[in-house]
Amino acid sequence: MNPIYAFNGQVAFVTGASSGMGLATSRAFAEAGASVMLVDINQEALDKAVAELTAAGRRVAGTRCDVADEEQVAAAVAQTVSAFGRLDMAFNNAGIQIPPVDAAEETFEAFDRVNAVNLRGVWACMKHQLHQMRKQGSGAIVNCSSLGGLVGLPGRASYHASKHGVIGLTRSAALEYAPRGVRINAVCPGPVETPMVDAMIAKGEFVMEEAVRDQPIKRLGTADEIASAVLWLCSPGASLVVGVALPVDGGYTAR
C-alpha cells in the first residue's frame, strides 16, 4: 500500500510527462492534490495526457518544451508560475536512450545529443526551477538519473556519462541549496516497463530475459514504483534527505 500524501495547494513540474515514469508521476502528484504542469516535447501525447487528467478532475496544464533548449525551459517554468502562482516540486525526468555501440565507434552527434537532453536538460530545468524556489525559500527537486548513473555497462558509455553527470549535478546543487530551504535529490531507476523500453526491445537493443535474470527481484520495475519514490522524496517524510542518488532498481546495485 502506498503512503497517502497531501500536496494540496502545492505545484509540481514534471518533464517527459506524456508517458512512462513522467506520466505516472504527474498522475500521482495530481491525485495527491497538487497542481501539475506537464512538460513534454511530444505535443500530441502531451495533449492526451492533459486531457486524461483534466477529465479525472485534476488541476493540470501542459506545455511543449525541448529541455535541450534553455530558452524553452525558462519559458516553461515561467508559464508554470504564471498559471499556478508558485513552484514547490519538480521531477526532471525527460531523457533519451541511444543504441549501444563500441566506445571507439561512438559519434560526436550521438554523444552530444544524449548529453544535451539527459544532462544539460536536467541542468537547465533545475537552474530555472531554483530561480523560483529560492524566492520562496522552499522546494523539492528530484532529478532522474539511472542505474546507469551508478554502474557501467559495455556499449553504454555516452548514456552512462550523461546519467553519472546528473548525480554530480544533483549532489553539488543539493549542498548549495539545502541551507536555502530547497532539497535536491536524484532517483536511479533500473529497467522499468515504459514505452522507451518497449521500443528498445522492438529494436533488439534490450533483451528482457537478460534484464530479468540480472534483477534480484526477478522482474522489471513499473512506472508507478518510480513515481512512489519521487513523491516520497518531495514529501515532508524525506525532510532530512538531501543530495541522495536513490537506487530504485530491484536490488541490482546491492549485489
Automatic annotation (TrEMBL):
Coiled coil: none
Entry keyword DNA-binding: no
Keyword entries, A-Z: NAD, Oxidoreductase
InterPro entries: KR_dom, NAD(P)-bd_dom_sf, SDR_fam
Pfam assignment, any one: adh_short_C2
GO molecular function: oxidoreductase activity
Superkingdom classification of source: Bacteria
Residue intervals of the Ketoreductase domain: 10-190
Entry's family note: Belongs to the short-chain dehydrogenases/reductases (SDR) family.
Protein name per its UniProtKB record: NAD(P)-dependent dehydrogenase (Short-subunit alcohol dehydrogenase family)
